Structures are given as structure tokens and as C-alpha cells.
Amino acid sequence: MREQKNRQDREYGKEEASLIQEGGYISPIPDLWEDILIGVVLKKPVLLKGPSGSGKTKLAQSISHFFNQPMHSVNCSVDLDAESLLGFKTINADSGQSIIEFVEGPVVQAMKKGHILYIDEINMAKPETLPILHSVLDHRRMLTNPFTGEVIHAHPDFTVVAAINEGYVGTSPMNEALKNRFISFSIPYLSGEQLRKIIQTLFPQSDLSLVNTMMNINDDLRKQVMNGLLAEEAASVRSLLDAIALAEHMPIRRAIQYAIAEKLEDRMERDLVRELVETWVK
């Protein structure tokens, strides 16, 4: 069983140790990483709120690495149903006879094995699907499987981490009964030296001028997002990293076009991105 002392014994004294986690996540806020770990230690379901590309999935992976705890992922959509969460029955042939077997889904597996259950874009699921998890997420930490009748009590190490992109197309506000079962953390975009650090880690051979140019473009994109002239995804760290990877093999203008501008639905926003690029690329 995990001990709180083991977590407290982790070395956070050096600045880089507090920023770069085993799974690759870099915290833009000094206390954010440690505060989330405290929530996990206390067996509280953790909800990560932030824009697309802010590193929520990377953060969940870092938690998995930190505790050396496997992670089962659920990607929510309007098609998500109870079978996708809990499992399904199937017919197998054994010695000429047909046998009905139950294939356990990610929720059941994570509960029994004491693994992490990561529910991505939880507010994309239909509201009527998720109440089946209420008893899993509160103090009971148990579930009666409607497909088998089995009563499942969660392993002591079982952990739930969920993520949402608020206000995006296709999402809906979380049911209050569901939201109240989580403790919530806002996950902002990386910027400044934290962003530079992860770029240098992922692209150690990149030319310094390329990194500086991309950092400057990203700063301008963030400002326009804050001004309400660009959608949040224009400043996505994930998209920026994609652009850098492309720019190592093609001109920056085309890299930004493919990795950032073309993802924006509004033509005026795409044009604005191109204009910002022109101020830094001669």
C-alpha cells in the first residue's frame, strides 16, 4: 500500500526537480504538482480543468509514473455507454460448448487492480451515462456491476483522474452531483522558462534561433487569446510542439500553418495567425 511518507520524501528542493516530472509534465505553478499529489494520496477523485493542449493528459501520465501505477484510459464521447466503462459479455467456444464470459472494462479493471482510471473529456459524455460512477467516486468506492451482479470494492490504491475542456463544442456542463465528487485543479498553459525548458528537453538539437522565434510567436498568440481575438487552441502547447517538430524540416511559415492556423475554423483567426508569424519570420 502506498505510504504518505514515501510521497513526502520525494525531492522537491531543486527548482528543476519541482518542474520536470517523471512522466514529462512541467508545472507552470510551483505548488500545483504537489497539491495534486496530496489529493491523490487522500484518495480524492481529481478533476483537471484546462484548455486543449495544456498538458492534462501528460499530467495524468506523470502521476502514473510517479506512483509506478498503471493507468486505464476512457475517452469520452456521446457514444460512451455502460459497456465501454464496465465491460461486456461475449460468447466463447470451449470444448465444443459455448460459454458466456464477461470481459472487464477499464473501470472494473482499475478498481480491482488498484490502478489509475483516467477519464478524458468527461464532459463530452452523455449526462445519463456517468451516474453509474457515482458510488465509485464517493466515499463508498464500490460498484455493483449491472451486467454480472458482482459487488466490487475498490483496491486501496485505486485512483481516479478526470479531465475536461470547458466551453468547447460538443461539451456540456458537468452534473453537479458528479462534479461535487471531485476536487478540481485549473491547468494553465505553459509559458516563459517552463515552456522553454520542455522545448529544449524535447528538441535538444533545435537551433536556438528557431526556439526563440517559436517562443515569440507563442507569446503573441497567447496575448491575442487573452484579448479574445483567437480561440484558445491557437496557443496550445501541443500545437506549438508540433510546429517546432515540423519547422526542423520545413520553413516556419508552413509549419505554423499546418500545426496551428489550419486547426482554426474562423478564416479571420487563421489570417491573424499568419500576420503574427510575419512579424517574426523575415
UniProtKB/TrEMBL annotation:
This is AAA family ATPase. Pfam families: AAA_5. PANTHER family: MAGNESIUM-CHELATASE SUBUNIT CHLD, MOXR FAMILY PROTEIN. Residues 42-193 form the AAA+ ATPase domain. Gene3D superfamilies: P-loop containing nucleotide triphosphate hydrolases (3.40.50.300). InterPro entries: AAA+_ATPase, ATPase_dyneun-rel_AAA, CbbQ/NirQ/NorQ/GpvN, P-loop_NTPase. It comes from Sporosarcina koreensis.
